[in-house]
Amino acid sequence: MSDATLTTTPPAADTPPTRTIAFRGGGFAPRSQRWVGVAVFVVLILIAEWGTQTGWISALTLPKPSDVFKTFGELYNSGLLFKHLGPSLSRLAVGAALGASVGVSVGILIGLFSYARSGLVPLVAALFPIPKIALLPLFVIWFGIGEGSKYALIAFGTFTPTVVATYGAVDNVDRTLIRMGQSFGLSWWSIVRKIVLPGAMPGILSGLRISLAIAIILLVAAEMLGAEYGIGAYILQAGSLYDLERLFAGVVILSLLGVLVSTVIGMIERRLLGWRT
After folding, report:
1. CATH second-level architecture of 59-276?
2. Where are the domains of the chain?
3. What is the average pLDDT across 191-212?
4. How far apart are CA 17 and CA 210, in angstroms?
5. What is the maximum alpha-carbon separation in the chain?
6. Could you tell me the sign of the dihedral formed by the alpha carbons of 258, 259, 261, 262, in that order?
7. How far apart are CA 176 and CA 168, in angstroms?
8. CA–CA distance, 209 with 169 (Å, rounded to integer)
9. Measured between alpha carbons, how far is 254 from 260 in angstroms, rounded to an integer?
10. What is the Cβ-side half-sphere exposure of residue 182, based on CA atoms within 13 angstroms?
11. Rounded to two decimals, what is the model's pTM?
């Protein structure tokens, strides 16, 4: 050891202090604020209640929300709610499941195979603009006035938007990922299963949101023709009697049904698309 003394140079007095930088690479991941949606509904209901109570909104235009909820409670207590809701849910489930499953399958075929694309895209383009409600009399002739025509209308109305959304989602899958899989020697089926389908799933689920909303609209239209029970039949009866409270109670049921469908799709998205986070 030398006799020299080790000295350390103290940091300069004017050295700026270190500052922690927040991580900025989290991506675009909006967080769900459910209370905001509930607050919007509550505010709108309170405004409608205040407007009808004060006479600012005519009773012939909009019933009091409190009277609508009272009618909804009477419908529940009498058991008619489930008599109307049960058949509607059954028709919606069968028709939408049939139309969505066939639509997704056809959309994937169009997205993957050139011959399917060349033959089916013009057909889908010809069927898509047709108003589905206008085909209800034709479906009644083909399938009868019973459940068959209602299933067919809902299935057909769900089918075409699902096909368009599905093959568009397959087309939008990043081709660089597909080429990368090919370069690593993955088989065709492995590329479809591990790259194409996961990459297309966000677009497919977004298309299903629209398709199922269309299915609810067509459900009401189908039940207004030759149905004794169902939400559409209930709304038709209330409208023919100009019973606004019952009419809006039916509309509330449809709104809740739409919220339920959207919630289910959201749960599926969180389960299947967790890899995006």
Report:
1. Orthogonal Bundle (1.10)
2. 59-276
3. 90
4. 54
5. 110
6. positive
7. 17
8. 14
9. 10
10. 7
11. 0.79
